[in-house]
Amino acid sequence: MKTVWKVVIILVAAGIMLSVIGLSMGASRALYLGRAGVYIDDADKVWIKEPDLGHFKNIDISATFGDVEFLSSDKYGIELYGREEDWEWAIDGETLSVKYKLKQKMSMKISLFDFNWNEDRDQVKVYLPAGVKLETVTVRTDSGKINLSGFSADDVQIHNSFGNVELSGIVGDKLRVELDSGSFSGNNLNAKTLHYNNKFGKGDFRAINADVFTAECDSGDLVLNDCVFSDTTISNSFGKITASGIESPKTNISADSGDINLDGRFSGETIINAKFGGVKLVTSMKKELYSFDISANFGKVTFDNNRVGSNTSVISGNTLENHLKIHADSGDIEVVFAP
Question: What is the count of structural domains for the chain?
C-alpha cells in the first residue's frame, strides 16, 4: 500500500512540474487529476453566443465547473464560455436548460491547480428582460460563483457546493438557497417563503421581506439588516447572529456557540436560546407591552438598563400578547426597551 502512495505522490509531483512547463509555454487552463491520470487541460475555450432566443418561462442550469450570472437585456439570450463539447443546452417548450457535461474519462475530474482562475473560468450568462416573470429557476454548480438579479419567479432553487452566491432584486413565492462552502449575499429580496442553508460560510441579508424566513447555519456568521418577516426561525451551530432593523411578530433564534445581537421591533412571541455566548436584544417597543421569562445559568442579566444579577432569572406574572423568552446557558443577557 505504501508503494501505491509513493507512486501517486511521484505522479502528482510530475504533474505539477509539467503544469509549470505548460504554463510557461502558454497552457490556458489547469492541472487535473482524473481517470486518465494527472494531466493539463489545455483545450481551446470559446464563447457560444445566442443573443435572441425568444421567450421562455423556466430555467434549469447545472454548471459543474463554472460561474452563472443573470444579466438584464431587452431580449432573452445566453452566452456560454468553455470548451464547446463540454456544454449542452436547449430550449424545450418553455424551458431553457443548460448542462455541463464531462467526457467519460474525466468523470472524476478534480482540479489540483488552476492558473488564471478568475480570468479563464467557464461561464454561463443568461440575458433576461428587466423585471421578467418566470415560473421556475433552478441553478446548481459544484464549483463557481452564482450571481442572479432582476426577475420574479414562482419557485427559485439555488445550490452551490463550493463558491459564493449573490442574489438581488428577486421576487419569488418560494426561494431556497443552499451552500456547502461559500458566502452568501442577498439584497432586496421578496418571498413568501425563504429558506437558507449554509454549511460553511457567512450569510449577509439586506432589505429582505418574507412571510416565512428560515436560516440554518453550521459554521459562519449570519447578518441581517432592515428585514421584515412574519415568521422567523434561525439556528447557528458555530457563529454569531447579528440583526439590525428587523421586524418579526414570531421569532425563534438559537445559537450553539456564538453571540446573538438583535435590534428591531419584536412583537408576538420571541424565543432566544444561546448555549455558549451572550444575548443582547434591543426592542423599539416599551417594556409595559411585554411579558417575559429571562434566565441565565452562567452569566449576568441586565434588564431595562438595570443589572439584576448573575446566574438568575426575570419572570413577569402574566403572559401578554408580546412575550420574550430568553435563555443563555453560558453567557450574559441584556434586554433594552424603548424609553
Answer: 2
**Domain residues for 223?**
202-339
Model pTM score = 0.83
* CA-closest candidate to residue 282, choices 297, 298, 299, 302: 302
Grid coordinates given for 113 = 491547480
Q: Do the domain assignments include residue 64?
A: no
| Residue 55, all three cell numbers | 421567450
Q: Which helix (H) or strand (E) holds 4?
A: helix 2-24
Beta pairing partners, 293: 315, 325
- Residue 31 domain flag: yes
| CA-closest candidate to residue 124, choices 105, 93, 98, 91 | 98
Query: Per-residue pLDDT tens for 225-246?
Result: 999 999 999 999 999 999 999 9
Q: What is the pLDDT of residues 253-292, one digit of tens each?
A: 999 999 999 999 999 999 999 999 999 999 999 999 999 9
Say how far residue 321 (Cα) sits from the centre of its chain: 34
> How many Å apart are CA 33 and CA 42, to the nearest integer?
14
3-state secondary structure 203-259: EEEEEEEEEEEEEEECCCCEEEECCEEEEEEEEECCCCEEEEEEEEEEEEEEEEECC
Q: Label residues 156-175 b or e (16+ Cβ within 10 Å = b).
A: bbbbbbebbbbbebbbbebb
Give domain status of residue 62, yes or no.
Answer: no
DSSP class per residue in 253-310? EEEEES-EEEEEEEEEEEEEEEEES-EEEEEEEEGGGEEEEEEEEESEEEETTEEEEE
